[in-house]
Design brief:
Largest sheet: 2 strands, antiparallel
Number of strands: 4
Distance between the termini: 31 Å
Number of helices: 8
Radius of gyration: 16 Å
Number of domains: 1
CATH class: Mainly Alpha
Mean pLDDT: 90
Strand order of the largest sheet: 1-4
Structural class: mainly alpha
Helix content: 40-55%
Low-confidence stretches: none
Order of helices and strands: HEEEEHHHHHHH
Length: about 200
């Protein structure tokens, strides 16, 4: 197995990231999710501890890891198991009852987790510190944008994170639409500034 001496992203979350660095990590994770989702796989346990760091700041290079809870969905299977790390579970999983033969959930759970990670990178804090805050938000409460604004997050960043954290899975960004979002597209501009020969 490849050895990554910098460990995982969790070790770097003690302070907010500069926005270009948060965007770079988010973009790389989103590209990995897009590859997985296109091929029918959902990670189901995306969290900072499962994003391994090959190179750290300022030129991040990260890789997704721990596919033990991943599942491939096809015509014969669906996502029906209650799995994941509680702090990164999407709202539809908090309401999910695997004992009932009700509707399954989708790969949108991965995008929710990535939105939480992006929020944490930008602010240094959790978007929803507890179940009450999450419940209030999913029941129509306001999006917790104050910390993003205080962190001087751009309008594009705030929009990306808010759309990644849409309470409804159907309204949430997908990996494909996320890669087309203006904030993620700015990663190309960041790379050009850092390396004009690109």
């Amino acid at each position: 197995m490849e050895y990554l001496e910098h460990g995982d992203l969790q070790q770097f979350l003690d302070a907010p990231f500069p926005e270009p660095e948060a965007r770079s990590v988010t973009c790389q994770a989103l590209e990995a999710l897009q590859y997985m989702h296109t091929n029918g796989f959902t990670h189901r346990d995306l969290k900072p501890g499962n994003i391994l760091v090959l190179h750290s700041r300022p030129d991040w290079w990260v890789k997704l890891a721990d596919f033990g809870m991943s599942k491939r969905v096809d015509q014969d299977t669906a996502l029906r198991s209650f799995v994941g790390t509680i702090q990164y579970l999407a709202p539809e999983l908090h309401r999910f009852d695997e004992k009932q033969k009700g509707p399954s959930y989708t790969s949108a759970v991965d995008v929710w987790a990535l939105g939480l990670i992006a929020y944490r990178m930008m602010t240094g804090q959790a978007a929803f510190p507890g179940n009450l805050e999450l419940f209030t938000y999913t029941m129509g409460g306001p999006f917790p944008s104050d910390l993003l604004v205080q962190s001087s997050a751009s309008a594009e960043c705030c929009d990306f994170i808010e759309k990644s954290l849409a309470p409804s899975a159907a309204a949430r960004l997908t990996a494909d639409s996320g890669l087309m979002h203006a904030w993620i597209k700015m990663a190309d501009e960041d790379a050009t500034v850092d390396n004009p020969s690109r």
